[in-house]
Amino acid sequence: MLFVILTSCTSELETIFIEREELLILTVDGYSDAWVSTNIKFLPGNLIAVDFEEDPAERVLFRRYYLIAEGNTPDDLFFEITVILDVADRSDIRHKYRTDYSRTRGGLHQISLVLGENGDPETFKFAQLCKESMQDALFEIDRQNFDEELIAGSLQAELCEVQGGEFRIKIIDAIFRDLKYNNNQ
Fold first, then answer.
1. Which of 24, 180, 158, 2 is nearest to 93 (CA)?
2. Please, what's the b/e burial string for 140-154 (b: 16 or more CB within 10 A of its CB; e: otherwise)?
3. Residue 106 belongs to what H/E stretch?
4. HSE-up of 49 (CA within 13 Å, CB side)?
5. DSSP structural state of residue 34
6. What pLDDT score was predicted for residue 29?
7. Residue 128 to residue 159: CA distance in whole angstroms
């Protein structure tokens, strides 16, 4: 939390507090308005062992993190987006994560989306990273506030319907800010 003390010609002190709000804004191809979420969690998961092709005998342990955000599209459909990220250095998680893992930084495991269907609140479409464009997917943490344990960054991905349908979503750009994280696990 940041606070500022301002003075004036009087002897009274004025204190201003800045409150942070978690925010995810998605720019999605085919939508003129952004998809917005203020209901976001960034949670640590288990340790994950990853084998690398160059040396299959050498396993590297990563801490798995889950970003889960839900909101409504501009046409008022429910959405939930989940990013699964594997991190090598939990003390400094700033990095451009891709599906091609780095031994020293980690990688992007998956991005998935649940989207409500028009007219039926009980029916949903499910999409995840498209196989043909997985290498283009990006999740970047470009700012990390160590004292407040906050992160900010961006993501880009193309998601395809899981059961082989024609449904596709292209996230042209997404930004997130002031996400609280916990490194104590």
1. 180
2. bbeebeeeeebbbbb
3. strand 106-117
4. 5
5. P
6. 95
7. 5
Q: Token digits for 134?
A: 């997985």
Report angle CA 118, 124, 125 to the nearest 5 degrees.
100
> What's the pLDDT tens digit per position in 8-43?
566 666 666 666 788 999 999 999 999 999 999 999
Residues 167, 125: Cα–Cα separation, whole Å: 8
How would you classify the pairing of strands 138-145 and 120-129?
A: unpaired
92, 144 Cβ separation under 8 angstroms? yes
- Cα separation of the two ends of the chain: 23
Using DSSP's 3-state secondary structure scheme, residue 40 falls into strand
On the question of pLDDT at 71 being above 80, the answer is yes
The structural domains of the chain, with segments of one domain joined by +, span 21-180
Residue 102 DSSP SS3: strand
pLDDT of residue 122: 81
- Per-residue pLDDT tens over the stretch 89-124: 988 999 999 999 999 999 999 999 999 987 677 889
